[in-house]
Write the structure tokens for this entry.
Amino acid sequence: MTADTLTDVFEEHRPVLMGVAYRMLGRVADAEDVVQDAWLRWSGGDRGEVREPRGYLVRVTTRLAIDRLRQIQARGETYVGPWLPEPYLTDFGSTAPDAAERAELADSVSLAVLVVLESLSPLERAVFVLREAFGYPHAEIAAMLDRGEAAVRQLAGRARRHVDERRPRYEVDPAQRRDLTERFLAAAAEGDLEGLMSLLAPDVRLVSDGGGKVSAALRVVVSRVKVGRFAVGVARKRMTGLSFRFLEVNGGPAVLLLAGDEPVGVVQLDVADGLVRTVHIISNPDKLRSVTLR
């Protein structure tokens, strides 16, 4: 291949590679580094005989992501407060031709699923991502990871059971989530505790990720009363002078909070049965660097 052809082929598959790397790592900067390393492997001439570029690039990206994830885990860093994935701007409108596929893609990159994936081993996570998010057959995954097909099937089954047992069940209707998000923000900003609590499930959870860099709840806040009071208190202290805009993050509607042009937070709600089940607040400034306005 010529240099231009190599570049064109890689750029064609970059969204898929970024999707694999981000689902593996839950961190945009690390995922971008992995994709860049995959480009270096692809462009460096050590490709052998590549008959199917997408399969080759996904295999390289997956292996690099496994190595990066093992390095992260080996560092054993202690995170201050609850951990949430770095918000990832998504737009499945052009790549998901029907509602069912869009919902499946959105679910595979949702904050709730990525939090559960953090508890899998790197190999389990790789098999889960390749199988559940991208639909690769077990035999192809086995070839990508240099594992036997039977072993990959065991890893896939174990990972699927683990995720099914731990991830909450939520609806992914974007219109309903956006409507509840608007009402949630309005009630919090107005200090309307009663109105806010009417939107919350009795066992609602609020997960606030400040990473020790900014003020945030150091534990998950649980129950309608506690979450309502927390949200009203935060709005009273910190939302004055802020603007916000809607965008799609991790497959669903979210709100980007801005101080001038500076992102200071991302808020996303998980919804079921017409009520808010989980409030995710990401305010760690290190995790907001990849959130750019479009």
Remarks:
- The chain has a mean pLDDT of 90.
- Strands lie at 200-209, 221-222, 243-249, 252-259, 262-272, 275-282.
